[in-house]
Amino acid sequence: MEAAVAEPGNLAGVRHIILVLSGKGGVGKSTISTELALALRHAGKKVGILDVDLCGPSIPRMLQAQGRAVHQCDGGWVPVFVDQEQTVSLMSVGFLLEKPDEAVVWRGPKKNALIKQFVADVAWGQLDYLVVDTPPGTSDEHMAAVEALRPHSPLGAIVVTTPQAVSVGDVRRELTFCKKTGLRVIGVVENMSGFVCPHCAECTNVFSRGGGEELARHAGVPFLGSVPLDPKLTRSLEEGRDFIQEFPHSPAFHALSAIAQKVLETPAQLS
Amino acid sequence: MEETPHNCPGTGSAQAGRGAACQGCPNQRLCASGAGETPDPAIEEIKEKMKTVKHKILVLSGKGGVGKSTFSAHLAHALAEDENTQVALLDIDICGPSIPKIMGLEGEQVHQSGSGWSPVFLEDNLGVMSVGFLLSSPDDAVIWRGPKKNGMIKQFLRDVDWGEVDYLIVDTPPGTSDEHLSVVQYLAAARIDGAVIITTPQEVSLQDVRKEISFCHKVKLPIIGVVENMSGFVCPKCKKESQIFPPTTGGAEAMCQDLKIPLLGKVPLDPHIGKSCDEGRSFLIDAPNSPATLAYRSIIQMRLAPYSKNVSAVPARASLRSNGPPASGQSPSGRSPRVPGAAGAAASEGGSPSQTRSRRRGGGAQ
């Protein structure tokens, strides 16, 4: 399968690889992956997104790329460009399904095989950043992705949580996973951090408060910021629009931009 | 470079590993060796074990974070409010076991006895099992591949001494993978009543939930219905409603109409839910008048309890209190929560076994 020594291959032109992880489902990994990619693009970077959530591939819809076909070239699969300027490219199992409602009912070994292919056989070309969106958990997909990406020295992982203890409880385990697999943690993002009522501006902590920052402190990793609940953000993702471009005054914009800025300032690790 | 075989004959079929679609599949050699043809003896053992369990309900969603564990826990709480109903809650989310925290049982450990593993009892009539009880620290990660997760699920179903149970509720992780295939496979001979599928209103959730529904059809798992969670938010200050997770494609209602599946109900967002879950208490008791509580109770009383064998029929009785004669003709025995002796070591490594709790909640349900 893959060589023990890093075979540059299709990742040779990729400068930085970032994994977006969480032990918990539904905290906003795909949201953060998408918005981070868009923010980096607006900072002038060429970005790729690799969606390794095989059972629930959310990214195509978030970038209005659902139903697009994947073509092959000499180097492998051609990723789908989501914009005319070809600054954001995407690969997801979503593109390989015959029908959008088709379930990918696979056990671990089959998932591992596809993830290895996604890492090795997608012709990304020259990219400043490759953002890897993952499903929740600490299982096959995560191990496969980390093993396949390890020879390419990822920049690190962004770990996403919501403020509540139930979420933090799972995400602690994800941080252990990072430690055990030698994956550097760029930082923790707390998503769904309060909701400002659009009618009266009262802020309600719908999913409790404080958990993300506390978690970062406990684990000794940087806290990258809190992203509030923002119906404009949710709607943008539903409709596959560019939130960063269209809603610069919306509550979540500032937090997302700050996170992207911190990523831009994160230096590559010395090997 | 291969694409994944779409026409997989199934690992148990005679064509497994031998069909044209199998070429290049990483499982091909395993299937061709015939390993998939021999039925796992555990299936029969689990069938025997499940004879004392009257109703089995799976709580599923393709999507993460929609409220499966929250719903499972509160379904268990609500059913167990009737002291004569024996309830078992099984958490098969191996990587992200939320149930111990939500049920206020963090730090509890599992004991072994001659008759198997004992679940952790929250009440005399409410037993819980989760991999969370087998971990010695909240930071421990369960970094297991599929086969090991499957083994754990097999043990949970075969080796836990559930006793006489009216309702076994199985909380699952998001997705359509090992855990889901395993629980359906291992319970194949024991007959699952059906699945409750949880979603939130937005399309990003629904697109995953449709896959889950497709999974249910594929494995012939009956669908009891869909619950739409986080369905609207009422500001506690100005009382105006906002759609934090907007139903841009019609929400669960449109999806259910489309796929001809019952919509069991909609539950609004309530910040108290998260708080109660974080603190391990029943939200139904903490906030009895919340619209979310009323929605939960309506769903549970009207659509899930008591649960009849006919999936599409709405149960005749709406009241939670009168359970009527149990289906098998045997009355549920009062079950002692105490583990006989302390013969076996605790199932987790390290740590000393803690006392199994037996406590009652103050006051009645409503």
Automatic annotation (TrEMBL), chain A:
The keyword Nucleotide-binding applies. Keywords: 4Fe-4S, ATP-binding, Cytoplasm, Cytoskeleton, Iron, Iron-sulfur, Metal-binding, Nucleotide-binding, Nucleus. Its main location: cytoplasm. Coiled coil: none annotated. InterPro entries: Mrp-like_CS, Mrp/NBP35_ATP-bd, NUBP2/Cfd1_eukaryotes, P-loop_NTPase, YlxH/NBP35. Pfam families: ParA. Its cofactor is [4Fe-4S] cluster. Binds 4 [4Fe-4S] clusters per heterotetramer. Contains two stable clusters in the N-termini of NUBP1 and two labile, bridging clusters between subunits of the NUBP1-NUBP2 heterotetramer. GO terms for cellular component: axoneme; centriole; centrosome; cytosol; nucleus. Heterotetramer of 2 NUBP1 and 2 NUBP2 chains. Interacts with KIFC1. Interacts with NUBP1. This is Cytosolic Fe-S cluster assembly factor NUBP2. The lineage of its organism: Eukaryota, Metazoa, Chordata, Craniata, Vertebrata. The gene is NUBP2.
